Amino acid sequence: MDPVVIAVLSGILSLVVAAFLAYYVLKQPQGSEKVREISAAIKEGALAFLGREYRVLAIFVVVVAIILGVVPNLGWLISLAFVFGAVSSGLAGFVGMSVAIRANSRTAAATQKSLNQGLRVAFRSGSVMGLSVVGIGIIGLSILYFAFGNHPDFLIIIPGYGFGASSVAIFARVGGGIYTKAADTGADIVGKVEKGIPEDDPRNAAVIADFVGDNVGDVAGMGADLFESYVDSVIATITLGAIAFFSATLGRSLVPDLATAWFLPILVAAGGILASIIGIFLVRVSEKLEMRALLNALRRGTFAASILTAVFSFLVVWALDADINVFWAILVGLVAGVLIGESTNFFTSYSYSPTLRISTASQTGAGTNIISGFANGLLSTLPPVLFIVVAIMVAYNFADVYGVAIAGVGMLATLGIQDATDAYGPVADNAGGIVEMSGLPPEIRERTDALDSLGNTTAATGKGFAIGAAGLTALALLLAYTQAVGISMAEISLLDPHVIAGLFLGAALPAVFCALTLNAVGKTSFSIVNEVRRQFREIPGLMEGTARPEYKRCVDICTRDSIKQMLLPGIITIASPVVVGLILGPLALGGFLTGAIVTGFILAITFANAGGSWDNAKKWIETGAYGGKGSEAHKAAVVGDTVGDPMKDTSGPSLNIMIKLISIIALVLAPVLAGFGGLI
To answer: Could you give the residue ranges of the DSSP H alpha helices within 349-441?
Structure first.
């Protein structure tokens, strides 16, 4: 059977299982009238935001498509691939979020029955996101192969698909991240810090906006992020296929023909889809309200998927008569992904000492909490960096730069279940908030709190996995760029002023990007804080619980401001590689990519893990440690969590997309820059 047909069938299977899981979730009881009312408000706000965001993005996509179509050496086929990638990315995010905003009330209702039933509903809703991403991704890549596989410019056309996916992802992640953290920060500052009321208290006007933000940022935004990682890793590997056909470094061929080099990453991804589906159905838990028991339930699924992916990858390499060293490169990427996820879990879960130390530091105030948390974030960069370095060196020694690229495919092959564990978190978080707002019994809130704490850990683990995948994918795209633009290793010198200039400019970009996104959250939070304060001040009986807050006001503010604030970071990211390449030339652009990938990778890990550990340090205190809720230690931990929120959910995750986006843009520009010396 044609390998691409197998890939298409795996994609169809993924979407069929996603539809089955969605059907399972949607047929569950929605709970009481109050629960349904709250869920409906969240659904309305999320769809309104996504609709406005996608209208803005549609204008951007049309403008860029026209530019690509008229640029010499690019053309309308690249433009068409760009539009297709943008639509695919937006569709993946929309499908996953559409189920998530309907699963929150059903998870709240299911948790009243049992902890296991609550986990099943929330996790299966997250699985719809994961399987939709990989299903749409592999079908989209297969369609491109069927349409243009025999076209002489196939390797120039296909990066356009990744460019479209990455362009939508940067705006979706930044816009959603600004929304969710502005609402969360505003709700926490006024509610928990100033008024001393519980989290998700119905008297707080920002709580519905906070719930909406979980969906638009951590479901739709993360889905778009991982979608572009997935397709970009395959595109980079396909682009480097000529090296697999004959490696000058190794002095031999790794595959029997060029077509096999193209089929390999697609079939590895197809095997990962099947493995992820099996892993998803292995997730179940007992009624113990223990983090380790809940975490082990998800680990059972992810570890099983990883082992099965390794088996399927070996069968793919064997069936295509490729060199066994290609399998070892795939395996090293797969193992590195698992280890990075476990490393993130160690540094962010309150089951381990790093996060517990932050809780302990909270006893002496917010200052020591923040110092301890930020130090933890910085220290947590070491294991992922070591894992990536080892993966790069081992994969390169086994299969040249093609091995590095396909190691990234191996890391992302289990994305179906990895994204499921991430998208599960916002659903569980929403369910807990709905339980609080609807006044359900405390024992139900205890169950949703357990699921929410697990969600914090899985979200942090998912972010760690996404960062590791982003680093390896961006590196593969960088290698593909050097091949496409005709830069040989002999031409690259660290003493070349163009390379040095590019390195400095690239290293500065993540810092500027983080500043812009953090400031965007700060500005939007400022508006939310003032609005919530105004409502407490001006609405009689609000604090006493006899009046209803104006939730829609906060939803509207977040929607308007986040869409406005997302534009500048996204435009700077897209414009910077174009400007550097045209002014300083292809060598400088290579240096620029290198600097941005390295510093972006470090900052992304630091921000994600510091924020995750601050959040879970607060959760640990809320279990009763150091005085529990309302204590001085808890107040300090709330401040640390507020600082960490935009770091872990806006700036950190958006850096993943930034380093991949500039890399795929460079690859798209390669035909224009080849042989071009730059203006300076």
So the answer is: 353-361, 366-379, 382-412, 415-438
| CB-side neighbour CA atoms (13 Å) of 395 | 30
Sign of CA pseudo-dihedral 388, 312, 7, 302: negative
Provide mean pLDDT across the span 474-493. Answer: 78
pLDDT at 355: 93
Reduced to 3 states (helix: H, G, I; strand: E, B; else coil), residue 409 is helix
Summarize the chain as % helix, strand, coil (round to 5): 85, 0, 15
pTM of the model: 0.88
- For residue 429, what pLDDT is reported? 83
| Complete DSSP assignment for 458-510 | HHHHHHHHHHHHHHHHHHHHHHHHHHHHT--GGG--TT-HHHHHHHHHHHHHH
Helix/strand/coil for 247: strand
Mean pLDDT of the residues in the chain:
87
* Residue pair 277/14 in contact by the 8 Å Cβ criterion: yes
CA dihedral (194, 199, 200, 203) positive or negative = negative
CA distances from 481 to 235, 579, 589 (A): 11, 16, 10
Question: Which pLDDT score is estimated for 292?
Answer: 65
Residues 417 and 17: beta-carbon distance below 8 Å: no
Q: Above 80 in pLDDT, residue 287?
A: no
Is pLDDT of 387 > 70?
yes
Ramachandran bin of 675, using left for φ above 0, alpha for ψ from -120 to 50, beta for the remaining angles: left
Residue 58, pLDDT > 60, answer yes
Q: Are 278 and 420 spatial neighbours (Cβ–Cβ below 8 Å)? A: no
pLDDT digits (tens, 9 = 90+) for 594-604: 999 999 999 99
416: closest CA among 142, 15, 27, 100? 15
What are 314's two structure tokens? 């070996």
Rounded Cα gap, residues 69 and 73, in angstroms? 9
pLDDT at 502: 92
Helix-helix angle 586-622:442-485, to 10 degrees: 170
Residues in the chain: 680
Query: 512-517: long-range contacts (C-beta < 8 A, 24 or more apart)?
Result: 512/572, 513/569, 513/572, 513/573, 513/600, 513/651, 513/654, 513/655, 513/658, 514/603, 514/607, 514/651, 514/655, 516/568, 516/569, 516/572, 517/174, 517/177, 517/178, 517/569, 517/646, 517/650, 517/651, 517/654
Q: What is the pLDDT of residues 222-233, one digit of tens each?
A: 888 788 888 988
In this prediction, residue 147 has a pLDDT band, given cuts at 50, 70 and 90, of confident
Cross-strand bridge partners of residue 252:
247
CA distance 480 to 278: 33
Backbone angles phi, psi at 287, to 5 degrees: -90, 10
453 pLDDT above the threshold of 80: no
Instruction: Give me the long-range contacts of 496-499 (CB less than 8 A, separation at least 24).
Output: 496/587, 498/584, 498/585, 498/587, 498/588, 498/591, 498/678, 499/587, 499/588, 499/590, 499/591
- 335-357 pLDDT, tens digit each: 998 888 889 888 988 888 999 99
- Expressed in angstroms, the distance from the first to the final Cα of the chain is 52
